[in-house]
Design brief:
The chain is α+β, with helices and mostly antiparallel strands. The chain has helices at about 1-30, 50-55, 65-75, 95-105, 110-115, 125-140, 145-160, 175-190, 195-210, 225-250, 255-265, 275-305, 305-320, 335-340, 340-355, 435-450, and strands spanning about 55-60, 80-85, 85-90, 170-175, 360, 385, 450-455, 465, 465-470, 475-480. It is built from 16 helices and ten strands. The strands form three sheets. Strands 2-3-6-5 form a four-stranded mixed sheet. Strands 1-8-9 form a three-stranded antiparallel sheet. Helix 12 (about 275-305) packs across helix 15. The termini are far apart.
Length: about 475
């Protein structure tokens, strides 16, 4: 009897615990909102369907096995799921993606990304702050500053990397690593200005912590990827803050971007301070060294796989050099704009590489979207929205969409970066502010590469896993200088 007296509460507690756990799992598996959610499953508690979503797949498959299975199962262009511990709506419907891009300007991000960039990052703040930060960034990487201030620096850095005779590089190099180094060198020079070698080295160690996968679960404890992100961000922020404060006091060795930031800080009622400047520079560093170099490398791979494209690029860039009065002069803005076929290659490459979410939102209130307009709100507040531009591979919009064919853009607008059928840089008020910067980097790299005879390591593979991956690198072998460019 005594044993029963002691064991009965334990049994009851276990039963209550099991019931609560089952209820919690049921609530997880069957989320509710004021309207009808798009079809979907939430997967396992917490984990959701993250591992399946993040499984790498071959670059040329374009559509991930995860998306293909979901589209086939539900017969819908929208579905609900759980990724990275968050509730998510994924859409491949171009109308819905454009609608969401215009309807809500709050940038959506996983908790791991918020920790990476900092909870107080201005890119995740309210609309007016986000717009202010975008305007500041645009003054640095926008077309006007590219044309008037950055073009020669970018051209010089790229040219120096290709000067084989001067020993600046070996006859083979990894494209992604080379592009990353050039972008980082540019940012150090033009954003921060002069830096002591020790500071550059220490910052370089911080950046390497961010090279692994950004998109991860948000748990922040020792040993996790997010923990390494947070520690590296704090270390980099401390370094940058000390450097910026020293430059602000001395007014020496400033970079172009620091000039812009310091001018803003001195305005009456300025909303920009040292901490915000540090966060902005840090974010710029991280975004630019991972996104653009990966697209450069993927473009080189696509060109290498298509010899007719490679030869046409060589002809165009040989002509650019031959038409110069001074053959050793740097590239001009007019030359950049005249590279018609190069812009066709870039436009096609951006179409081909963009198979990951480019529209990220978190609605602050329930919204009605797409085909669910006749129902009550289908996207609850607080859910992540991922818009994926699979319209880039729609046979109704693009002839033979799985073929890399720059000539499909002949006679079309080569400088447009946004329509409901083409959105490699997102859309709406959070359209990537560095889009022209990215295109310019790709063009300059192709210009200098095309002046040589080159080949790509046949073992080169490109995988898609939210971001592009190069498991065996992307090594180019330079064989000889292209005739007529000497």
């Amino acid at each position: 009897m005594l044993d029963f007296y002691w064991t009965f509460p334990v049994i009851v507690s276990l039963i209550v615990g099991v019931v609560k756990l089952c209820h919690w799992i049921y609530r997880w598996k069957t989320p509710t909102c004021k309207g009808k959610l798009p079809p979907g499953t939430m997967g396992f508690p917490i984990i959701g369907e993250t591992f399946e979503f993040m499984t790498p797949y071959d670059f040329h498959l374009v559509i991930s096995p995860f998306l293909k299975k979901k589209i086939s199962r539900y017969g819908s262009k929208m579905f609900s799921t759980s990724l990275f511990g968050a509730k998510v709506i994924i859409s491949i419907d171009p109308e819905v993606n454009m609608e969401m891009a215009k309807a809500n300007s709050q940038l959506g991000a996983t908790e791991s990304l918020r920790r990476l960039f900092g909870e107080n990052s201005d890119f995740f703040q309210r609309k007016d702050i986000h717009k202010y930060v975008r305007n500041l960034t645009s003054r640095f990487v926008g077309p006007e500053n590219l044309k008037n201030r950055l073009i020669q620096d970018i051209d010089c850095l790229t040219r120096n990397y290709f000067e084989i005779e001067n020993g600046a590089m070996s006859t083979s190099f990894d494209v992604k690593e080379a592009a990353t180094q050039m972008v980082v060198d540019l940012i150090v020079k033009k954003v921060i200005g002069g830096m002591e070698s020790e500071a550059v080295k220490e910052l370089g160690l911080c950046w390497t912590a961010f090279r692994p996968n950004w998109f991860n679960f948000s748990y922040n404890f020792p040993g996790t990827t997010v923990y390494r992100f947070v520690m590296a961000r704090k270390r980099a922020a401390k370094l940058l803050k000390g450097l910026i404060q020293k430059k602000k006091e001395s007014k020496q060795g400033l970079g172009d971007f620091l000039d812009i930031l310091f001018d803003e800080m001195e305005k009456d009622g300025a909303v920009l301070d040292i901490d915000r400047a540090v966060n902005l520079i840090f974010t710029f560093f991280i975004l630019s060294q991972e996104t653009t170099p990966a697209i450069v490398a993927a473009t080189v791979k696509l060109v290498a796989d298509n010899p007719d494209v490679m030869e046409e690029l060589k002809r165009e860039h040989e002509a650019v050099v031959q038409n110069r009065v001074d053959k050793e002069a740097g590239i001009t803005w007019e030359e950049y704009k005249s590279m018609t076929f190069t812009h066709m290659v870039i436009k096609e490459s951006l179409r081909f590489t963009s198979a990951q979410p480019t529209v990220h939102r978190i609605p602050t209130e329930d919204v009605q979207i797409g085909g669910f307009l006749s129902l009550r709100p289908a996207l609850p507040a607080g859910w992540l929205f991922f818009g994926i531009p699979l319209v880039h591979f729609d046979e109704k919009k693009y002839d033979d969409p799985l073929k890399f064919n720059p000539w499909r853009w002949k006679g079309q607008d080569l400088h447009g970066i946004l329509s409901k059928d083409y959105m490699p840089f997102g859309a709406g008020s959070t359209l990537c502010v560095g889009s022209e910067f990215a295109k310019f980097i790709i063009a300059i790299f192709l210009h200098h590469l095309s002046r040589f005879r080159w080949s790509l390591d046949p073992k080169t593979r490109v995988l898609r896993r939210y971001m592009l991956m190069f498991p065996t690198g992307c090594k180019v072998e330079i064989t000889k200088e292209h005739e007529g460019t000497k």
